């Protein structure tokens, strides 16, 4: 509990103007106790079966995303989106069930994985990395694709609700951007943070997507 | 009874493979030729397998190649591997392994159907979504929605119940811990009833 409180000190300061959502999350954390150290370690191991023990990602039948170094706020948001059924309905497994954990556990896991920094998983095609870098930094103005760096930061490490993209697995990024409108923000009456990316994902061609994904997969 | 059955099968297949040998291997690929001569007497004609020597038909190429490496390196060290496969794989080089893997992976697999049908539903649910409160992950995430496998992830659908049950239990007993992660860790955390249910369900998957 102490560890969590400490590691959240800085984000609390940084997120002074954060959404009500996050403030509730933090308040919940203060109220809730994580059952025990053992239960936490067992859960972290469970996540690591699919996402890799150091959160570097894993290629099974599905490509499991890198969690290492991910922004805590984004991380917690996504776990809630799975639980609420707003994300992940295009998978054969029930993502809400797979990702079902308490709010206190979400925060503790976000902190654990956020601190890890393994090498990128690698394995992406290399031909279009230069084009990907250009799109990432400058966008494609004539196709209404904005510069990704504007929101995801020049080093692609993200901030707050804008995720880290650096070192993300190629197959995961490609699938995510292609399926954005089918897989994210599925409670149409209550748009969530995924709405910010919708126009970006929709205006990208397959070739632009694969180029950016290849570039991102190489970043440390 | 089962012992008798597999012994009879063994003798029959030895006869068949010897007949093929006598006739030469005309029109066969190198992989098929080696499989017929060296593997069929334990793994069955067309690699459809038994409870002891499992089905290889329809298995993914990379998984077969990886296992042949692990038998040669003696890292797959459970008793049946030591007894039967260390010898069988000892003289295979990387090219032989690739030829054999290409051949076996190209054969249409048939399900063993030897599990306990009353446990199949529980097994199906476990396979699909895992048991997150017990920290067991969904198997689909790596082995695919139809247990078909991909790349290094083996096809599990239709393998023999008795083979699967033994294999999953042996990880818990400390064998073959050098297998590709995280499988040994996952299997170690399965309860005996979960193993029964998963192995039963999988044996019926086409």
Write up this protein:
The complex is a heterodimer of chains A (220) and B (206). With 220 residues, chain A is an all-alpha fold. Chain A folds into 2 domains: 1-46; 61-217, Orthogonal Bundle (Cytochrome Bc1 Complex, Chain D, domain 2). Chain A is built from 13 helices and 2 strands, in the order H-H-H-H-E-E-H-H-H-H-H-H-H-H-H. In chain A, helix 5 crosses helix 7, helix 8 (129-138) packs across helix 13 (206-218) and helix 10 runs antiparallel to helix 13 (206-218). Residues 1-32 of chain A have low confidence and may be disordered. Chain B has 206 residues and is an all-alpha fold. Residues 1-23 of chain B have low confidence and may be disordered. In chain B, helix 1 (2-22) runs antiparallel to helix 2 (30-43) and helix 3 runs antiparallel to helix 5. The two termini of chain B are 26 Å apart. The chains are: A mainly alpha (220), B mainly alpha (206).
């Amino acid at each position: 509990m102490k560890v969590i409180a400490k590691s959240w000190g800085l984000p609390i300061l940084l997120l002074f103007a954060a959404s009500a959502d996050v403030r509730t999350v933090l308040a919940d954390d203060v109220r809730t106790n994580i059952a025990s150290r053992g239960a936490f370690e067992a859960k972290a191991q469970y996540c690591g079966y699919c996402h890799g023990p150091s959160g570097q990602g894993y290629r099974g039948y599905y490509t499991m995303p890198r969690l290492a170094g991910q922004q805590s706020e984004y991380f917690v948001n996504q776990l809630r989106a799975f639980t609420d059924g707003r994300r992940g309905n295009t998978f054969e497994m029930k993502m809400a069930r797979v990702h079902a954990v308490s709010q206190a556990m979400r925060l503790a896991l976000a902190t654990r994985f956020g601190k890890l920094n393994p090498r990128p998983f690698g394995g992406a095609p290399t031909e279009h990395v230069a084009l990907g870098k250009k799109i990432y930094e400058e966008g494609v103005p004539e196709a209404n694709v904005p510069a990704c760096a504007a929101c995801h930061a020049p080093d692609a490490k993200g901030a707050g609700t804008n995720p880290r993209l650096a070192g993300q697995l190629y197959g995961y990024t490609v699938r995510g951007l292609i399926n954005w409108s089918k897989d994210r923000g599925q409670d149409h009456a209550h748009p969530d943070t995924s709405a910010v990316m919708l126009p970006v994902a929709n205006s990208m061609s397959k070739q632009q997507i694969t180029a950016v994904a290849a570039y991102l997969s190489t970043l440390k | 009874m089962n012992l008798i059955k597999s012994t009879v099968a063994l003798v029959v297949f030895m006869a068949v493979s010897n007949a093929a040998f006598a006739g030469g291997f005309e029109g066969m690929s190198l992989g098929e030729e080696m499989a017929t001569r060296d593997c069929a007497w334990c793994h069955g004609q067309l690699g459809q397998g038994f409870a002891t020597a499992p089905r290889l038909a329809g298995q993914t190429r990379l998984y077969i190649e990886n296992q042949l490496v692990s038998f040669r390196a003696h890292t797959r060290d459970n008793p049946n591997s030591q007894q039967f496969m260390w010898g069988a794989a000892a003289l295979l080089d990387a090219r032989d392994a690739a030829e054999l893997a290409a051949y076996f992976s190209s054969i249409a697999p048939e399900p063993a159907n030897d599990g306990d049908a009353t446990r199949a539903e529980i097994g199906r649910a476990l396979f699909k979504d895992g048991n997150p409160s017990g920290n067991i992950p969904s198997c689909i995430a790596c082995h695919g929605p139809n247990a078909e496998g991909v790349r290094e992830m083996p096809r599990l659908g239709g393998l023999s119940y008795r083979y699967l049950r033994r294999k999953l239990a042996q990880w818990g007993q400390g064998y073959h811990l050098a297998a590709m992660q995280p499988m040994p860790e996952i299997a170690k955390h399965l309860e005996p009833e979960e193993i029964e249910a998963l192995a039963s369900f999988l044996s019926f998957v086409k």
